[in-house]
Amino acid sequence: MSSSTSTTCTSSDMTWDYQALRGCLQQETLPVALVDLDILDGNIRRIAELVQKHQKKMRLATKSVRVPALIRRILEKGGEAFQGLMCFSPSEAVFLSEEGFDDLLIAYPSTQHADLLLLWELTQSGRSVTLMIDEPIHIQQIDAFWRQQGNEKAIPLKVCLDLDMAYRPLGMHMGAQRSPLRSLKRVQELVTLIQASDCIQLQGLMGYEAQIAGLSDKNPFTPMMNTAKTLFKKRSVVDVAKKRAEIATWFQKEAIQLAFFNGGGSGSLDTTSLEDCITEVTAGSGFLQPHLFDYYANNRNQAAILFGLRVTRIPQAGMVTCQSGGFIASGEISLDKAPVPFLPPGLVPTSGEGFGEVQTPLKVPKNVTLQPGDPVFFRPAKAGEIAERFNEYLLLQNHQIVDRVKTYRGLGKCFH
Fold first, then answer.
1. Buried b / exposed e along 279-290 (16+ C-beta atoms within 10 A)
2. Which spans in 224-325 are helix H?
3. What radius of gyration do the chain's Cα atoms show?
4. Dihedral class, residue 255 (left if φ above 0, else alpha if ψ from -120 to 50, else beta)
5. 87 vs 266: CA distance, rounded Å
6. φ and ψ at 146, to 5 degrees?
7. Tens place of pLDDT per residue across the chain (416 aa)
8. Which side of the chain, N or C, has fewer Cβ within a 10 Å radius?
9. Which of 182, 183, 181, 176 is nearest to 160 (CA)?
10. Cα torsion through 290, 296, 297, 301, rounded to 10
11. Distance between CA atoms of residues 131 and 278, nearest Å
12. Dihedral sign, CA of 284, 290, 292, 297?
């Protein structure tokens, strides 16, 4: 990250208090991850009000949380606005089922033998689990595995069709490389194959508009691109709504009953919720609000998660070095994928080292004094991935630690 690049805190961010955090962490071993429950609850309330306003349900994306206790809290605080979970893999679905959760939508296809066995066991035990598919071979492999079990009374596997929502002006592909279901005709072909199988039951549709939900349009790291991004997103919103409406109309015409039509993400809830055909929207990152999600013009959420590093050295005047810190987010390599210094305000990473696995040097403004042993707090770029770096999160209320909860990692779990 360039030493001249920094982000500013909004007034809502300042509910975090450096001196209070410093005091309550005196006896803690850093690095440490922190979640403010009051801020989290505020984000839950705002998101729940949005989806209820448009008579939708909210499905929580667990990969953006990865802490069972927080998943449970979000569902409880969200109340009737929330319905089910969207998880990453069959193994995560099994784990969440063991934690007492149900209505599990697996967002990514997998038909390897070990995963199909997990899905078989979950389904036959009566749990509600739905697998994403988007190709004929997915149907063939599921059908063959179910038949190999030799149980004529077996419960069929619920599946969801993953619709491609990429924007393609002038033949260009602008969006995630996800599903090959790019036309109503291809959707119809898969529906026909599903209807011919006794082993598979069509449960729902998902159309995820990654080029909208995942594209920030108020990004301080690329300010010259923001106007173009805004225009692109407006055009893509219209295109996506048209595609989803066309497919939904065909299902209605054919009298094919679906349990849900899912769409959206934390970055596109405002627009996805407006579509009549959508019954539920998905969000995950918006509850914890990592810094990437500040950079959306329609954002209303506040930073609920930080991590803290300990100052260990003062290599020269105007600088400190913290232990650890190399928590870089996945995706296209860019400046906004690094954490950002948060408290004390004004610290800036160096261009020569950035955030390192073992140390992170920072430039310190003249009005800030830090000594070895002092904490420095940062905001991660993404919400879920930071959980892979910590065994537990410390939960705060009124600037005091009120609980400690295990992450997936702390519970010995790692889902790929």
1. bbbbbbbbbbbb
2. 226-253, 269-272, 285-288
3. 23
4. left
5. 15
6. -60, -40
7. 333 344 444 434 458 999 999 999 999 999 999 999 999 999 999 999 999 999 999 999 999 999 999 999 999 999 999 999 999 999 999 999 999 999 999 999 999 999 999 999 999 999 999 999 999 999 999 999 999 998 888 999 999 999 998 878 877 777 778 889 999 999 999 999 999 999 999 999 999 887 777 767 677 787 887 787 778 778 878 888 999 999 999 999 999 999 999 998 888 888 899 999 999 999 999 999 999 889 888 888 999 999 999 999 999 999 999 999 999 999 888 888 999 999 999 999 998 899 999 999 999 999 999 999 999 999 999 999 999 999 999 999 998 999 999 999 999 999 98
8. C
9. 181
10. -30
11. 19
12. positive
Record the tokens describing residue 313, joined without a space: 């050295």
Tokens of 168: 């393609």
- Kindly report whether the global pTM for this prediction surpasses the value 0.70: yes
Burial class (CB in 10 A: 0-12, 13-18, 19+), 23: exposed
